[in-house]
Amino acid sequence: MIHRHTFQILSLSALILLGASACQPVSATVDALPAPTLDTPKTTTHDTRTAVLAGGCFWGIEAVFERVDGVREVTVGYSGGRADTASYDKVSRGYTGHAESVKIEFDPARVSYGKLLQVFFSVALDPTQKNRQGPDTGTQYRSVIFHGDTRQKEIAEAYIAQLDAAHVFPAPIATRVQPLRAFYPAEAYHQQYYDRHPAAPYIVINDMPKVHRLKALFPNLYRDPEKFVEVNLH
Predict the structure, then answer these.
(1) pLDDT at 43 (0 to 100)
(2) Domains in the chain and their CATH numbers?
(3) CA triplet 196, 47, 148: central angle to 5 degrees?
(4) In the annotation, is 57 catalytic?
(5) Which of 141, 167, 193, 208 could share a disulfide with 59, CB 3.0–4.6 Å?
């Protein structure tokens, strides 16, 4: 399979000939998936809570959740391994135990944890794939919900069971639910990659359809992010 950085040196037309349509998630259905039957109610206070999700290249997942109303900040990084191996050069080799992940800081008065999972499974990935997403292969691209507490664990496990019982996907969900030990932010050049490089072939082929689906399936949840401005520090 083609690693995502290889996409940057191939022409868009060549990618299409290579079968880019195969990179579309299985969840590309007409409607959004059903909402979780188990969820936390929206709060009346505007505090900040955290969700950590992994499922393939973190660029596209970051782009999706940056556009979800109620999300305050999204950071790409690594979870599942040790601090001394939390770098792209090491994680990309597939032996560190890390998965490319996103940390989502959200306002529970505006969006629930279960709603974030509904978006995740509806838009962000193909949850039936194990240790890969689209053109990216390896344990670092596995699908994981890293729960921060018992309630998140219960909601995530119940939602996976709900979707599997409803047979909304052609195969069982491969996404795992694991405790969050730590989250390590990725290098600066990975942050907001979608907004920095909107014309990059990998982004156009793999990630832009996810953002379009978010807007189509969740119009009441979609919000345009603040215009990205790269600050020149020199």
Answers:
(1) 87
(2) 4-22+43-217 (3.30.1060.10)
(3) 75
(4) yes
(5) 193
pTM for this structure? 0.87
Q: Could you tell me if 14 and 114 are in contact, meaning their C-beta atoms sit under 8 angstroms apart?
A: no
Question: What CA dihedral angle connects 116, 172, 92 and 59, to 10 degrees?
Answer: -30
pLDDT tens, residue by residue, 148-165: 999 999 999 999 999 999
